[in-house]
Design a protein that fits this description.
Blueprint: H1 2-23, E1 34-47, E2 50-63, E3 95-103, E4 106-109, E5 132-143, E6 152-159, E7 170-171, E8 175-176
Length: 178
């Protein structure tokens, strides 16, 4: 009777193990990143006597192969500042912010001399392809002269992965410029 009980216990553990491992399968995300808007906060701050709004935008991301992020030293093609024809290379950055200002009842793109586009660092330190998800936060400094005083400002946000796949575009909630 003892061998049958041992066998039954062993089979039970085997089935339990198979059940748990089937619950741990990797998520199936597309290789093109997908983002969702999470939050935007604005806090009044001052630097060397100059007031500004410290703005933090947070998005969530999902990417099927996890090839997200650029290190600052990555300046060779396809991540260089310019393309081979000398034009500005969009993919020198991987985090894209297009400000929009409310005019009447419509938000319109507001082009700045120095755009807020930037880089976020590599999500993974190796080149292993595996699904990734998480949150990215980006901090902006908006000075009093950046936008018209009292205007409602929002941002169109997107990201790119290392394979130059562009995510969908999300729009933040508006903030009021000081």
């Amino acid at each position: 009777m003892l061998p049958i009980r041992t066998l039954a216990l062993g089979v039970s553990f085997l089935l339990a193990g198979a059940t748990v491992s089937s619950c741990l399968t990797a998520p199936d995300y597309p290789d093109t990143p997908s983002i969702e808007f999470k939050s935007i906060t604005a806090t009044r701050a001052e630097q060397d006597g100059t007031p500004y709004d410290a703005v933090r935008v947070t998005i969530s991301f999902r990417d099927g192969d996890g090839d997200l992020g650029l290190d600052n030293g990555e300046t060779n093609p396809p991540y260089g500042e310019t393309n081979s024809d000398g034009t500005k290379n969009k993919f020198n950055n991987n985090y894209f912010f297009q400000p929009q200002v409310l005019q009447g009842d419509t938000y319109v793109d507001y082009n700045l001399a120095f755009p807020y586009d930037s880089r976020f660092p590599r999500i993974s330190s190796d080149d292993r392809k595996e699904p990734k998800r998480g949150n990215l936060s980006f901090d902006l400094q908006i000075f009093d002269t950046t936008f018209p005083t009292g205007s409602k400002v929002r941002f169109k946000v997107s990201i790119a992965d290392r394979s130059l796949n562009l995510s969908n575009e999300v729009i933040t909630d508006p903030i009021t410029a000081k």
